[in-house]
Every structure is written in C-alpha cells, then in structure tokens.
C-alpha cells in the first residue's frame, strides 16, 4: 500500500492510495498514470490538493476506509454528523459502496433529529428517509425553533399530504376535489404542484401537525402562541371554521402570553371577546409602555390607553386607606417633574445640571 500525501485545508494527510482507489474510480484512474508522469502526492513537497474538501470530512472517511476492510471489521462508532462527512465525500468521489454503507448506518442510529435527516435526505436524494422523517416532524410532541424552519427551507418546498385532510375542514379544498379528474391535474405530481401562494412553511407545518393529530385521534399538539397563530392564520384564510374556533379556544387558555401580542391577533382575526379583558390587563400592569408596544398597537391606541391610566385617581376610604376611581379627565398636579425630566429624558443625557437650593 503506497502512501500518498494529500493537502486538505492546509493540512497534510498521509494515506495508502489503494484505500481510496478500491472504492473510487477517480483515484483508480490516478493510480493508472505511469509512475514517471505521476509525481503528485508522492512527497510532502508535492501533495495532492483535494480542493473543496474539509479536513474533518476527510478524517472521518479515512476512519471508515483505513485499513482497507471492505467493512468486514467492526464499523467505527460515528455520530450522525460524522457519518454525514463520510456520505459527503463518498458522494463526491463516486464511492457507491461506501455511500450505501454510510446511509445504512445513519438510518440505524437512534435519537436523530428528524429535521437533520430531512436536510441530509434532500441533499443526497435519500428518498426512503423523507416520508418517515416528515411523519416524525409532524408529531404533536415536536416543537420548532427558528433554526428548524430555516433548515427545512422557506417557500418553494414541496409538501405531500392527503388532500382529504384539508378538504374535511375547508370548503376551499372541497371545491378543488369536486373538479372532474381529467380537468383537475394540479397537485397530482411533483411537476405540477398546487401553489399555495401567501403561505409560509412554518404556518403550513403547524397546520398539518394539528390536522394529523385530529385525524389519528392523537392529543392536541402543545404549540406556543406563535405556532397557534400560524394555525389560526391558515384556518381563517381557508375557511376552516372548526379549526379556527379550536385554535382561538386553545390560544385563550395559554398562560404567559404577552397581552400586546394577544390584542394584535384579536384585531387581525376579529376575536372581539379577547379585546376588553386583554386591554384591561395592559392598563393594569406595572410595566411602562415601550417602543415595541407603540409599533404593535399603534400610536393612537397607546395614547388612548395612557389617557385611561392618567384618569386614575386615589380615593380616600375615610380612615380605611385608599382605593382608586376613574375620573372623566386627567387632573392637574403641582408636583415638580424637573428632576426626573433632566435625569431621564435623552435630551439631557451626559449633561451636568445644578439645582438651585433656596437659602433661609
């Protein structure tokens, strides 16, 4: 086994060229060049430059291949990420046997994030992984992060789903199914999908998860307020009245929801029953207004709610303390706010100021 020298990301690797040549026609061709003509890789000063290869990927491939074992010895214990490195180079260098070996071992690993499997399956065309991995993604127990949605892809991704899943809840999709078969070809093939314009990946995924759970009598998925908003958005768009009411009911029972977010959703989807109690919570809270509140609610709403709070005045209970009453308008006060104005308004930040002290 003649040792060759390869340079990967500036690092020199020494390896028996036969190890790669056994599996790859690319390296077999390299070995067939007559010795006097083939000097690349024979010395440290003239290594083979493996462009586009990462040193960590190459190291994992050598762990699987060296010494030449044809997979008769125990398989190295690699993680899903390390096997992905092997798969990447096996695909690049047409190592078909190594590629199948990597795919088989990766598929047998336990506790792998289904989104990781979907990403790898799409990249290396492992079609057998896609259906079970998407099924795992749609399970009620699965929660999504922004990174998950980004890795799954944005608009333009193809989804396969039973049309009756949507038609059962939506008049829009029921009408679509009633078109005679010879005329209705949209959605029947990957080449002619239904284009769901104005629908984001995240919104559609959350809606499918809920519909799947209802179809198979699974528990309702534990979604966040934002995820339920995705369901509400599409149920409103596609006239899924039952799904919409279910989303509204579940969202209203969630705890720890920002009341400002709740008002925004209530206004957008006409949930008037939320408005009075939620706005009341906003006015009652000790938290001051911030720029995000103004952006979300609008300046006119924030000014009106601030006015309601300004009209709140203490009322004596005649020796039993104080409570509060809401008067018709804000009352004048003689309190001097000069100190707090100069201390906290940005106009005065960084300035020194002196307060005149009366002499008696």
Folded structure, characterized:
This protein has 360 residues and is mostly helical. 50% of the residues lie in helices and 7% in strands. The strands form 2 sheets. Strands 2-1-3 form a 3-stranded mixed sheet. Helix 6 packs antiparallel against helix 7 and helix 16 crosses helix 17. It starts with a strand and ends in a 16-residue tail after the last helix. The relative contact order is 0.05.
Strand content: 5-15%
Total number of helical segments? 18
Which series of helices and strands comes N to C?
EEHHEHHHHHHHHHHHHHHHEEH
Number of strands: 5
Main beta-sheet strand count, sense and barrel state: 3 strands, mixed
Report strand order across the widest sheet: 2-1-3
Helix percent reads: 40-55%
Q: Compute the average pLDDT.
A: 78
Radius of gyration, CA atoms, in whole angstroms: 33 Å
N/C terminus separation: 103 Å
Anisotropy-based shape: elongated
The parts where pLDDT drops under 50 for at least 5 residues are: none
Structural class: mainly alpha
Observed structural traits:
360 residues, mainly alpha, three-stranded mixed beta sheet, 50% helix, elongated
Task: Give the SSE map.
Layout: E1 3-8, E2 11-16, H1 17-21, H2 25-32, E3 48-49, H3 55-65, H4 80-92, H5 96-107, H6 114-124, H7 127-137, H8 146-152, H9 163-167, H10 171-177, H11 201-215, H12 225-237, H13 241-252, H14 259-268, H15 272-284, H16 291-297, H17 299-310, E4 312-316, E5 322-326, H18 338-344
Parallel strand pairs: 1-3
Antiparallel strand pairs: 1-2, 4-5
Helix pairs in contact: 3-4, 4-5, 6-7, 11-12, 12-13, 14-15, 16-17
């Amino acid at each position: 086994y003649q040792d060759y020298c390869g340079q990967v990301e500036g690092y020199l690797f020494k390896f028996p060229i036969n190890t790669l040549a056994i599996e790859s026609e690319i390296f077999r061709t390299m070995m067939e060049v007559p010795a006097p003509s083939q000097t690349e890789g024979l010395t440290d000063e003239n290594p083979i430059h493996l462009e586009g290869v990462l040193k960590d990927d190459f190291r994992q491939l050598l762990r699987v291949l060296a010494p030449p074992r044809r997979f008769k010895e125990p398989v190295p214990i690699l993680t899903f990420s390390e096997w992905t490195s092997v798969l990447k180079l096996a695909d690049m260098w047409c190592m078909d046997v190594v590629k199948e070996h990597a795919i088989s071992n990766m598929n047998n690993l336990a506790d792998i994030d289904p989104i990781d499997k979907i990403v790898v399956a799409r990249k290396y065309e492992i079609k057998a992984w896609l259906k079970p991995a998407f099924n795992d993604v749609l399970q009620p127990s699965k929660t999504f992060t922004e990174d998950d949605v980004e890795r799954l892809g944005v608009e333009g991704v193809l989804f396969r789903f039973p049309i009756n899943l949507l038609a059962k809840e939506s008049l829009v999709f029921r009408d679509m199914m009633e078109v005679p078969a010879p005329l209705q070809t949209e959605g029947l093939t990957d080449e002619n999908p239904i284009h769901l314009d104005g629908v984001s990946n995240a919104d559609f995924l959350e809606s499918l998860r809920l519909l799947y759970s209802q179809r198979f009598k699974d528990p309702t998925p534990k979604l966040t307020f934002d995820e339920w908003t995705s369901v509400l958005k599409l149920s409103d768009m596609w006239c899924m009245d039952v799904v919409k009411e279910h989303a509204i009911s579940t969202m209203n029972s969630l705890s720890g929801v920002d009341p400002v977010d709740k008002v925004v959703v209530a206004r957008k989807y006409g949930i008037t029953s939320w408005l009075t109690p939620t706005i009341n919570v906003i006015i009652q809270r000790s938290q001051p207004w911030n720029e995000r509140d103004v952006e979300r609610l609008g300046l006119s709403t924030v000014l009106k709610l601030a006015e309601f709070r300004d009209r709140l005045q203490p009322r004596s209970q005649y020796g039993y303390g104080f409570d509060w009453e809401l008067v018709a308008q804000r009352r004048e006060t003689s309190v001097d706010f000069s100190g707090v104005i100069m201390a906290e308004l940005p106009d005065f930040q960084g300035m020194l100021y002196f307060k005149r002290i009366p002499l008696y």
